[in-house]
Amino acid sequence: MPTVPAQKLEQLAADILRAAGATESEAGTVARHLVEASLAGHDSHGVMRVLQYAKEIRAGLIVPGTQTTTIQDWDTGSTIDATGVFGQVACNQAMQTAIRKAQQRTVGMVTVRGANHSGRLGAYVALAAAEDMIGLVMVNGGGSGQWVAPFGGRERRLSTNPITMGAPSGKGFPVVLDMGTSVVPEGKIRHYFQKGETVPDGWLVDHDGKPTNDPGQLYAEQPGAILPLGGSAGHKGYALAFFVDILAGALSGAGCCSADKRDTSCAGGILMMAINIGSFGPTSHFQQQVEALVDYVKSSAPAAGSEEVLVPGEFEFQHHQRRSRDGIEVADSVWQDLQALLVELRNGSWAHEAQGR
Q1: Contact of 215 with 194, CB cutoff 8 Å
Q2: Is 60 exceeded by the pLDDT of residue 345?
Q3: I need a labelling partner for 111 at 20 to 30 A (CA). Which of 95, 148, 220, 342 fits?
């Protein structure tokens, strides 16, 4: 497994995306986002996604160079149609809009429909935290990308429907909750599958609803399903997923899960919110309280097998520091596929084959 400096990996990702048709700005935005996800230790949302995005450009699911369309706009919110742009481009625009509106009206809320894969959501709430705001993001698949069985069921009916919150901490990194409402995101299953490794207990069931450790069962001809977050209390993760489908899907107009939206293409719905902390009192007082909370929680004696108590977002901060210094480990199959794809794009065979379809 090669270990690659972040700068080199970002350059490779940008080169591939440009060669696949992305504009200079799009390639930079997306490559930077993906490498930041890998630096944070979330390889499932990192550079491995370049391969997916290139295929989606080829299939016409991502349309480089297009612009988002504002459907509605008012003083505290907007509704945006992503119109085929990269998910990272649309999401950055949406969160910046929410922040700008929150600066003027305390709360800014933006919905996005027709979004492609948006990457690591924690990056967007971190944008809000950097502006002394609380950020909140919810994402559904617009009815597609149904990987998850409902609690008490064995067939796929929901997307992984993640929810993310972030706030400034005064500790050099934002506190960030970034979780799927399923026990694990699909991308992490794919990461195990690409590495040829088995997944932990409690993540998957096969087509018959029996527990399995084989990640390939999720992609089988008769596919299995990811389980909702919570194990024996999975009704909680399932209920969260249900309401993310409503808030991100129905509210944005992207749509919710249904029998006629069972493909895995991305046409997602997103809800983004920014809350201006300064409207409620001095931001310094807020940060003092959060900093004290962090210190108090971390003062707990570690449990057996743990070296220390980590607060939300600290795992990513520590990984970012280490990988910035030591480089990013990239799975052999991903590294080989990235190199091969760049060669294919540069010699023109990719474009030739795409035109022939």
Answers
A1: no
A2: yes
A3: 148
- CA angle (350 as vertex; 349, 355 as ends), nearest 5: 95
What's the pTM value of the predicted model, to 2 decimals? 0.91
pLDDT of residue 190: 86
Overall number of domains in the chain: 1
Structure-block tokens of residue 174: 């934002």
pLDDT reading at 356 higher than 50: no
- Residue 255 located in a structural domain: no
Q: In the prediction, which pLDDT does 351 show?
A: 57
Residues 6+ apart with CB under 8 A from 336: none
Range of the domain at 39: 1-65+327-357
pLDDT in tens, 119-161: 999 999 999 999 999 999 999 989 888 999 999 999 999 999 9
Residue 43 lies in a domain: yes
CA separation for the pair 211, 20 (Å, rounded)? 39
Non-local CB neighbours of 171 within 8 Å, separated by 6+ positions: 291, 294
Torsion of CA 144, 147, 149, 154, to 10 degrees: 110
Q: Give the CATH number for residue 29.
A: 1.10.1530.10
Is the residue at 51 inside a domain?
yes
* C-alpha closest to that of 169 among 294, 274, 276: 294
